[in-house]
Predict the 3D structure of the following.
Amino acid sequence: MTQTTLAYPRPITFTGGTIDRADHLRIDPERLAAAWADPRARIVLLDGLDPRPTADSLLATSPVPPEAALGDHALLGLRDDGTPVFVSLIVIKSDEPPVFPPKVWQVIPQLSLDEAALYGAARSLVDWHDRHQYCARCGGKSHPIRAGWVRQCEICSTEHFPRTDPVVIMLAEYEGKVLIGRNARFPPRRFSALAGFVEPGETIEEAVRREIMEEAGVRCGRVDYLFSQPWPFPSQLMIACVAQALDDRIVLDENELAEAVWVSKDDVRAALAEDENALFLPPSPVAVAHHMLRWWLGD
Amino acid sequence: MTQTTLAYPRPITFTGGTIDRADHLRIDPERLAAAWADPRARIVLLDGLDPRPTADSLLATSPVPPEAALGDHALLGLRDDGTPVFVSLIVIKSDEPPVFPPKVWQVIPQLSLDEAALYGAARSLVDWHDRHQYCARCGGKSHPIRAGWVRQCEICSTEHFPRTDPVVIMLAEYEGKVLIGRNARFPPRRFSALAGFVEPGETIEEAVRREIMEEAGVRCGRVDYLFSQPWPFPSQLMIACVAQALDDRIVLDENELAEAVWVSKDDVRAALAEDENALFLPPSPVAVAHHMLRWWLGD
């Protein structure tokens, strides 16, 4: 199976997972209980929402502890050999004070493509349960059902599904240059592609044009889809696009961006090569924006 | 501005809205209050979640009533001439018993492209507020803030954003035929494209391949994006794709589909022409699946 589109053959972090999500088990209590009782079954170990590396593995798993309850776990799927993989929906936070940047950013680049994809799905799902313990319709307590892929309200029985928020992330292109921006929260010189949430009532293409107009005041016409990436902080679907700008005059929205600049292929090449004279620092290779710049160079 | 992609120039219902969402007003209480007080300001009239047609208009609007409160309304945006357009977040349900099919299906095909897009955004937003009156984190009551584009919990202050659920909808292609399916809830002979929600931790392309495999047992390789459509029942982003199947053997998941068949261009042409001898009844022109079949014919 191709991991991304043919237009960009490099692997992108959090894509390319090989686990079979086995959704037929989610709705079949007997087969789900059999998977849970399978002596090969494993549980992905998390520390809060982060991986809990062991001496043997960066994304460690354990057998199912005898005291563990199926109802507190989500089925992530079946490995190629049929091994069921679960994750606990009870978030166990470490006593250590949080450090910045979080440890997770040191671990993720060292995971295999498949491990990162499994971790991304697990993190998004566990975090969603942790932040959605109550029914948004009536305020009642809810609990996980269907192998952790649904929550149901204990008062009004409404079913709630994990959120995945579509986000457009895009390069506007004009006369051999692309538009990149620096969020005010980023360190100096760190630039990325512009991005924003798709709102109810708009297409991907309309969201791309709206966000570029809002953030940089640049009007765009044609929009082309490039590739996508699930982003587990907390649960976005990053939809990467390229838009054709109709002019290059920038009117910055300072609530959104500290800077926005048009950069050439030479500028991008120097940044990705981490040349000390580069105009800007590129986005992390973990981020889809990094791959959008590589795609634009024709790498 | 192009309404859809260049690959498919026909208009698709709920796309092509021209209203300026004016997100800068959402975070600026003074300018928002000025828009609300603008004597030109209009409120889209709904009956429950459906349009409330008048003798003059299928998607009628009224001036702001003197007793109305800004905090109970969402700003949909500004028209080209600067007219602010709002919608009430208080759902007023009609006393009439619901009929099937709902009246909304009679009105939508008669709306202009721009009216349908405005209605779609309004319906999704109003419905989201109606179904999310409580905080999913703590169970407290929440209320709309930022011109109706956020809700905030009155207990724990958590902010909640409107949901938009990405859904992949796709044609699998094999040797000059495409795969279509009949949901068990559909009437006899009514077929559409296969579809399913994108889950946390997967790309658009991975979701397309997973759904076709789950529902019809067909393995696919390359996936190409076609176009997208916001679908306000309640708030999906329909992401239309075409996938290249690796073989044509179907293993039906009867929990998902009643039937799945491979159809030729002649079969699709007869169905779209509503030929009485056609193999199947096509999806409604309001649905993106209708346009996917037209795109496949090269119309």
Observations:
- DSSP finds seven helices and 15 strands in chain A.
- The domain at 165-297 of chain A is CATH 3.90.79.10 (Nucleoside Triphosphate Pyrophosphohydrolase).
